[in-house]
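Consider the following assembly input.
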Amino acid sequence: MSVFDGLRFRRVYSPIHNLDPRIKFVYVCAIFAVAIIFGELLPLIILFIMQIPFVVLAGVKREWLRSMRGAAFLATIIFLTNFIFAYFGGREVAQSLENAVAMTLRFIVLVESFSIFFLTTSPDHLGLALEQTRIPYEFCFAFTTAVRFVPVLAEEAQTIMDAQKARGLELERGNFLKRIRNYIPILIPLIVSAIRRSLELAEAMESRAWGATKKRTNLYVLKMHRGDLVLVAITCGILATAIYVRLYLTIPSLNELFRSLF
Amino acid sequence: MIDAQNVYFTYPSGVEALKGVSLTIRNGEFVAIMGQNGAGKTTLVKHFNGLLKPTKGKVLIDEVETTKVSVATLARNVGFVFQNPDHQLFSETVEDEIAFALRNFGFKENVTKRRVTWALNLLGLTQYRKTSPFMLSGGERKRVALASVLAWNPKILILDEPTIGQDYQQKEKLRQFILQMKAQRKTVIIVTHDVEFVAECNPRVLLMLEGKIVADGEARKVLTNLEILTQASIVPPQIAQIFLQLSDLGLPKNIIDIYEAQGILLKFLERKAP
């Protein structure tokens, strides 16, 4: 569940939390795109380091580190597969190592930026952003409700696990297939209660006249502030630099750099 | 025997739920743990079958420290019925649901069958043997959950909010059943908000407040101590309220039992009547 912890929003105030979620989302997408454009290690390291000021400024270091730790397992798998395939594909060790690290870092940068986005954007804010980009309200509502219920579901899964463990269920026992089967007593109550809850939610919404008025007004209206403009500028800068570097410069690999230095 | 020694527990989120709890529960005792929401009741009982391990201090179950053995091993002796039955029901039939734990503990198939029949009978569920647990009413689901734990006959039984969603008749059955367990020298621990139920059962009461035990004693003592009850935001049982308000007539204050109350009032009225 530690991955979820890294995505769980906590209400605090910081310059990053106050940014317009739409701009933040564009920024995350830009980082995402840049991480995909480059496969070399050097730019990915720069990209990784560039996110750290955001984390510090938002004051979410602890949660962010936790989500990084949650991603560690997948990152290891990515590293190993890349390294093994490159190495046995006939490349030399240093080169395949660099390549594998780059691929892993690409994944980490993606997790990192999304984690920053979700850690600093409240679900309400997110819903507001969706609505004010003229997406039909039904979809916005479905989306925000889904986001809203992730932590609830995670907590419920924990309770169910406890209840079944108290009845002698041992999740880590048996061979691979048996271990998967061990999760049935956890998944069924989880799914059943999720369905039951969604029906209850629907009834509660109906009884509060959901969808009675076609035109909705908002109490809060998103407005661009100075900080948002700064972020727009930063995003444009990153994108422009990335495209320029990609098109007109060759990026040295770290191996080559070291070799030319010594 | 349950022995908690200066137990502290902090959740990963940083909430300190237990702040130095020490207590001993002997075999065959009937204990009710009470207190307002968030007082640490459920956190405390989750330490008794090893679902939670103390961050500081020790919990010993029959002289074995809970950190040294798995939950499954502890569960063989400590049965824990969760508050919400929907968090554990998953089988196709009530029968399978009850047999689940027995199979986990490695009971033989013929023993499992016998135990299931016994548990179904005990809780009046025999007619639902082949029914899906999801088709049952809330109260019935609760009883299936209880049966599924009782089936392996644990020495210690923990019930988290057993009276929620039960009608008066079922509550009375539950009370009878707990008394029966007590007669068999089993330890029963209930976590509850239901003061009236506790008053009728008259167990040892542990009152918790903000992660600490603030009162420990007979129900008639704890549940009539207004000062402590107010602190823990608990309203005394109705009988106790009457006697607390009538105390200037010279009646005793520590009464929670209906029949005892009736006796005292009758005697009082006889004396008053010319």
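The interface with chain A takes residues 46, 49, 51, 70-72, 75-76, 79-80, 82, 84, 86-90, 100-101, 104-105, 134, 148-149, 152 of chain B (CB under 8 Å). Ask yourself how this observation constrains the way the partners meet.
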